[in-house]
Amino acid sequence: MDLNGTFFNAEKPAATKYAPYLFDSSDLKGKEAGAYVSDYLINTMFEAAFSTGNELDITELLSKLNITVTTDDIEVAIPGIVAKYGSGKNVSILGKFIQ
User: Fold this and answer.
1) Which residue, among 56, 58, 55, 64, has the nearest Cα to 91 in the 3D structure?
2) SS3 57
């Protein structure tokens, strides 16, 4: 059985410019099952996400795992943030795909 994982925007379906990776799915190298992830899957995922224009609320996703990001956590990546905003302040993280 072969499975071609392709992401697309359900609101604006469009053909992708990427070509699926071709591989021999019957070559399991002695294993009972195999799984493959190629750049095609990753590229179509990011292409579909970008085409929506939506923001990704990472803070909301982390809160479902009971994880809170504070200025102390971000200090490693952004030196001086604790000095500017104070220690232990909650941080909101949003992401958006841009060109």
Assistant:
1) 58
2) strand
In the chain, domain spans: 1-53, 55-99
Q: Is 23 helix (H, G, I), strand (E, B) or coil?
A: coil
Q: Please name the residue ranges forming H helices in the chain.
A: 39-52, 58-63, 71-74, 81-85
Give the pair of three-digit tokens for residue 43. Answer: 């590229």
Q: How far is CA 28 from CA 3, 39, 76, 96, in A?
A: 15, 20, 42, 38
Condensed to tens digits (0 to 9), the pLDDT of residues 45-71 reads 888 888 888 888 889 989 999 999 999
Q: pTM surpassing 0.70?
A: no
